[in-house]
Structure formats: C-alpha cells, structure tokens
Amino acid sequence: MSDSRTPGGALNDVAPYDALLLLSFGGPEGPDDVVPFLENVTRGRGIPRERLAEVGQHYFLFGGVSPINEQNRELLAALRKEFESHGLDLPVHWGNRNWAPYLVDTLRELAAAGHRRILTLTTSAYAGYSGCRQYRENLADALAQLREEGAPELRIDKLRAYFNHPGFVGPMVENTLEALAELPEEVRDTAHLVFTTHSIPTAMAETSGAPDDPARGTPGGAYVAQHLDVARLVAGAVAEATGIIGRPWELVYQSRSGAPHIPWLEPDVCDHLEALHREGAPAAVMVPIGFVSDHMEVKYDLDTEARAKAEELGLPVARAATVGSDARFVAAVRELVLERAAGERGASPARCAFGALGAAHDVCPADCCPNPRGPRPAAAGA
Fold it and tell me: Of 116, 169, 198, 242, which one's alpha carbon is 20 to 30 angstroms from that of 14?
C-alpha cells in the first residue's frame, strides 16, 4: 500500500492493517431477545431465568430494544464515510460480545474474505477489566474457536484507550455546555456538574491499569484516575467557556449490579443527587463521561431513574449527551488508526492526549487489568 497523503497532508497509510473491527457489548432488539441476551451476559453465574426476567424490566420499558445496536450502526456508517473521504483503504466491520452480530461470526467472515491483520476499536474508553481485558479475552476465545474450525490465522491488535483524546473530550465539553443551557437561566451559573460512570467492584478498580502505570498507584487505580482526569478537563473547559470559576463537580457512579456484600465504587448518582439537595445545590448537570453512547444504562439509569429522583427532590437537572458518532470522535478514531499503523511500521507518530496522564500504552501488559476470577488467555496484547 502506498504512503500517499490526503489533501490536508495527513498520512493515510493503514498498513499493516487490512480491516477495522468495531467491538461492542450488544443488546436486545425486541422483547423476545431480552432474556436470552441477559443469559449471554451472565453466562456461568447460575442466575435463574426468573431473575433475569425481573432484571429485563429495564429493557421492556423501552419495548425490549436496547439503543446500543442502532447507535453502533450509526458509528459504523460514520467511520466508513470518514475513512472513504480521507482515502483510508480499510473496511470497517462490527461484532458484539453478547448479541448479534456476534464477534466470532464477524471474525469468521473477515477470515473468509481474506483479512489477516485486524485492528480493533472497543466502545469503552477507559482501563479496567470489563472495559478492556474482557474484550481481549473475548477475542482470544473467538480466535481459539476459529482455529478449531481450521480457519486461517488472524492477528488482532487493539487501539489504545482514548479517554483523554481531544476527539473524545471535546464533544463532552460541548455537550455539557448544551445541557447547562437547558436549565432555567437563574440556576445555570450555580449548577453542579455530576460526572457519571459505571460502578465496578472496588477490588477490580484498584487493579485496573498496568502495574507500572503511575495511575495504578492512586486510590481506585487507573479506572478512577482516568475518569477524574477527564472530569477535570471537562470542568476546566466549561469554566473557561462560561466564565464561572469554581463550579462544584464530583465523579459519581451508576448501574451497580453486584451482590450487596461486595464493595463497589460509590457514591451512587441517585444518592449524590439527594446529598446535593440536602446541601442546597440549586441544580445539576449529569455528564456521562464513562459511556461512549446513549445506550440503556444512560437511558434508564440517568434519563429514567436519576431524573425521577431529581423530580422527587425538586432538583432541576439536565443530562449531557455522550459522544456517540460525533464527527470529532469519528475523526479521532481515524487518527488513532493511523497512529497505531505508523507505530507498527516503525515510525514514532504523535500521540494526542489531553490532561495529566498522557497517551495510554498500545499493547496491554500481561498483568494489566487482571481477571478477578484468575488468568485467562487475552488477545491484542500479552
């Protein structure tokens, strides 16, 4: 492949890669899918089907359809258009962990089409077992199944964590400003910012990241450190844009799903809204920095449950949109692809990152974000 340039002067050589895989969580697309989907998510945990039906009520409120698949279709289309318009000869395919199109089926199709060197974008921006290593374990499982079937050998790499890339942070800043504008004018300048992300067990949070990563040594490990870095970036940019210095903000958590006796990251977003109300806060903007798209955990846990709590309290709230298929995020993925491709060819490309933590590693060390149930094979890294 030639080392040609676009009119803007950016390299568009994607060698050695011949495909990009968009790898996501998946979600049901109708009422009949809900329980089977949840069985996939919880496989091996021995949860009764009746309990899964209870948990599925969140999905049934939305007709049994999770928004995540449609949002991934939009991102897939945007990436294809972005690559084509910039002369990147890199087909983009999509596979899921827990629902169709299943990861192993997508990889089987890629192998049959002659692709051998695949770069992967996961719809999770941060370090952590569930958001990074588990996807790599899914890739290893899929590759093992294909080897058993006699499929050609594939090599798969994963794009670095992009939580602090300008193309991820920038849209979050703009979305936060737009959410502030939705509040009554008399409370906009004094509204608190409530940055939200998925709660995880504290033990898992503390081991997130690479052992030699300075962020690993902070309280909460790399998972918490990375979210705090993004929260500071967004809060600082909002202060600059509005001229309101010292606006209160906090990182809080949502979507806890574990056993009550196991410690998880706190405070919960609804508990935090109650605390804000007790303290006399005039309003709040919920900013879901931990999520790439407005999927079910945003639509239910924030737009439904947290909003209901705020209405009960009489606390004005607004919710910032996620980055979704924002053009700046799509362009960031293109930049990350070219960055990784250049690095694989032996170059030293610029690695864009905002904040104090710098650009994340390309290849995850063997003991990065360990599986809490013990070591398992993981692709796209050691």
Answer: 169
Q: Are residues 139 and 202 in contact, defined by beta-carbon separation less than 8 angstroms?
A: no
Q: Peptide bond preceding 267: is omega within 30 degrees of 0, i.e. cis?
A: yes
Q: Which two tokens stand for residue 293?
A: 């798209």
Strand-pairing partners, residue 381, are 364
Among left, alpha and beta (phi > 0; psi -120 to 50; other), residue 255 is left
Sorted by where each starts, the structural domains of the chain and their CATH numbers stand as 19-162+325-344 (3.40.50.1400), 166-319 (3.40.50.1400)
C-alpha distances in Å from residue 25, one per residue of 66, 72, 86, 287, 325: 11, 10, 28, 21, 16
Q: Is 218 exposed, middle or buried (0-12, 13-18, 19+ CB in 10 A)?
A: middle
Residue whose pair of structure tokens reads 């500071």 in the numeric block? 232
Q: Which pLDDT tens digits describe the chain residue by residue (382 residues)?
A: 233 343 333 468 999 999 999 999 999 999 999 999 999 998 877 778 887 888 889 999 999 999 999 999 999 999 999 999 999 999 999 999 999 999 999 999 999 999 999 999 999 999 999 999 999 999 999 999 999 999 999 999 999 999 999 999 999 999 999 999 999 999 999 999 999 999 999 999 999 999 888 888 888 899 999 999 999 999 999 999 999 999 999 999 999 987 889 999 999 999 999 999 999 999 999 999 999 999 999 999 999 999 999 999 999 999 999 999 999 999 999 999 999 999 999 999 999 999 999 999 999 998 899 999 999 999 987 5
